[in-house]
User: Fold these one by one.
Assistant:
Number 1:
Amino acid sequence: MNHLSPYSKKMRVLFDHSSPFLLAHGGVESQILKTKSALEAHGVEVDFLRWWDAEQRGDLIHYFNAAPSSYLGLARKIGMPVVMTTLFSTTCNRSNLRLLCQGVLTQLLLQLPGGEGVKRQLIWRTFNECAHNFVGLAAEKYVLEKVYRVSPKKITQVPLGLSEKFLQTGQPARQQNHLISIGTITPCKRNVELAKLARAAEVPILFVGKPYHLEEDYWKQFTNLIDGKFVKYHPHVIQEEEIIKLLKAARGFVLMSSYENWCLSAHEATACGLPLLLPDLKWSRERFENQASYFSGNLKTDIQILKKFHAQATMQKAPQIKLWSWKEAVVPLINVYQSIVQAKV
């Protein structure tokens, strides 16, 4: 993981992304900004692609999300390789059988005659058209290989990192009686459902986060459940020191989202020494295996699971898994960047 391929020329990488941070905050924002800082710490020049600057230059574009086929076509015309980091948060948690069926259907539709204009607007081709694909999980790599028929040679797994502050936190104090759940207040995180479960189980949970928009109905549903006893709330926190303080004070970490791919907050909680209660999905099993507790998906059973987890949390250890610093995590990126740039020369 720490090995860098020898390369003398200083690279300039241009970052691009399809959704401005002001429209939707969250884990992708953290991933992009932390990746940029870590690459720069290795001596890689990184700049955000300036759509208005026709004179901007770089060795390659790193696009976070699936770039449109037309975008890749224009980049090829000027000799600019494009690599992509795509989050298959929903897709990678589907059953293997469903993914195989999806792959067969996708290939059949692509092979149908006609409709080329429509096909160019779909993302199905972009994973093969780009220079390389980065994913976080083996489950996401499976999606690229089985659904989109991407060669394993064009796929690299890249973990998400943590800052040194998280990696050096030490043992938690756990002086509070509540569990903690950190994340955007949004339907896919199922904060409302978890809040209702907390009330039913009479287990205190501190929710930390904010909605995308204060006028969302889901946010209003959530705020109506805040009682200060079983459903506690703390506004969104940016400072890492404050997040660490909140995590280390809690008995354990709980998340009941519909889907994730890597889930940075679960790894931050692990670094802070907390046991985890998670949804039983591919991403969570891949990362934490049998070292976490899991919801069942049945309401009555989950009430008992939550009660038991809360009662036993202070006696449980955090998962003993590999955690990367951001500087370690970006090494695979740099090695792929180098091989692509060298191939251009």
Number 2:
Amino acid sequence: MILSLIFNNNFSLGSFYIFPNLAIAGLVYISAYLGIYPGWLMSYILFYIYGSMTPLNPAVFGLVGTVSYAVSYILWRKIPYDNAVTEILAAFITSWVYYLTLFLIVFYCYDIHFLYWNFLLSYGFPVSVSTALLTPMVFFFFKKIGYKNFLKKNKLIYL
């Protein structure tokens, strides 16, 4: 989480930000193998902590994280197979929903006006693409360390 914030705040390609949001990649993995209530709680806590490192209210990030978790959870229940293409697709849609929801809350509820095309096209879309392309590696990493077995052993996995 901290690396995503540091690299996106300090490094970019021109005006495009491409460093992936690793918290969303982890959220997509969690939603694929975790039940609805433990996953919802874990995503809220994860994004609340993520939001506490930003100048906005952390509860906003918690809300946006749970909305993204719901989208990812529904996607994983509708897609019958698990491969790299579905991981990329689920991560892209989840990330895009995350940034679109965050944008709508900040723009309309907090009344912070900025160029929305600039945010969506130079930040939201490139970060969503890079997050989606990185997600198969995150899945591979979690599978290698046996996180799915940990979830099964502790009966947190969705059956």
